[in-house]
Write a structure and sequence with these properties.
CATH class: Mainly Beta
Number of strands: 6
Number of domains: 1
Strand order of the largest sheet: 4-3-2-1-5-6
Strand content: over 45%
Structural class: alpha+beta
CATH architecture: Roll
Protein name: Protein Veg
């Protein structure tokens, strides 16, 4: 059952490749890390985000679909009018 859920999360991200997204990740010890960037690629187990250069020291980050399933990462996709509206979760 979990494998099907991970596949559904992957399929919900695939149409948004190339779009701007906002990531909210659990940084540990009650810290929340917020990053923005472009959803660059989806792979069978992970997805890659190219981060905005002026805000982050890293160029790219990757997260697994299990991170979304366990609510360690929340992904919000920017809609056509510039607002962040579509949230990807389990």
């Amino acid at each position: 059952m979990a494998k099907n859920t991970l596949l559904e999360i992957k399929r919900s991200l695939e149409p948004h490749v190339g779009q701007k997204i906002m990531l909210r990740a659990n940084g540990g010890r009650r810290k929340t890390i917020e990053r923005s960037g472009v959803l660059e690629e989806t792979y069978p187990s992970v997805f890659i985000v190219k981060l905005d250069q002026e805000q982050n020291a890293f160029k790219r980050v990757s997260y697994s679909y299990a991170d979304i399933l366990t609510e360690s990462v929340e992904v919000t996709v920017q809609s056509n009018d510039g607002e962040f509206r579509i949230t990807i979760h389990q």
